[in-house]
């Protein structure tokens, strides 16, 4: 039987951990996360905690710098969507125009 309340607490604690402002607070939040994962006793939460441990150095960098790849990922998605909607153009100039117009609309909005 799934204890959805315990799983929800694990998820919320992970959010707390990722919002911390110092490495000391992050270590405390990670210890609390480990307790909640143990209490939840679910394969999914165990896997999540192992992933957090595996990526801990990168998480520390996020906490210290606040830098993410969110903007880059958003731009890559936008480029893929523009390319997807412009498929079927046989004229390279028209294809280029569609791409430039769509990207201009995104930056103007």
Structure in words:
The model has no long low-confidence stretch (mean pLDDT 88). By secondary structure, the protein is mostly helical. 82% of the residues lie in helices and 0% in strands. α1 packs antiparallel against α2 (23-40) and α5 (70-85) crosses α6. 8% of the residues are buried.
Q: How does the SSE layout of this entry go?
A:
Elements lengths: L3 H16 L3 H18 L2 H12 L1 H10 L4 H16 L6 H17 L1
Helix pairs in contact: 1-2, 5-6
Structural key phrases:
mainly alpha; 109 residues; elongated
How would you summarize this macromolecular structure in one to three sentences?
The protein has 109 residues and is mainly alpha-helical. It contains six helices and no strands.
Instruction: Tell me roughly what share of residues is in helical segments.
Output: over 70%
Rg is 21 Å
State the low-pLDDT regions, or none. none
* % residues in beta strands: under 5%
Alpha-beta classification = mainly alpha
Gap between N and C termini: 48 Å
- Strand elements, count: 0
The largest sheet, given as strand count, sense and whether it forms a barrel, is: none
| Backbone shape | elongated
Average pLDDT confidence is 88
Compute the number of helices.
Answer: 6
**Strand-and-helix sequence, N→C?**
HHHHHH
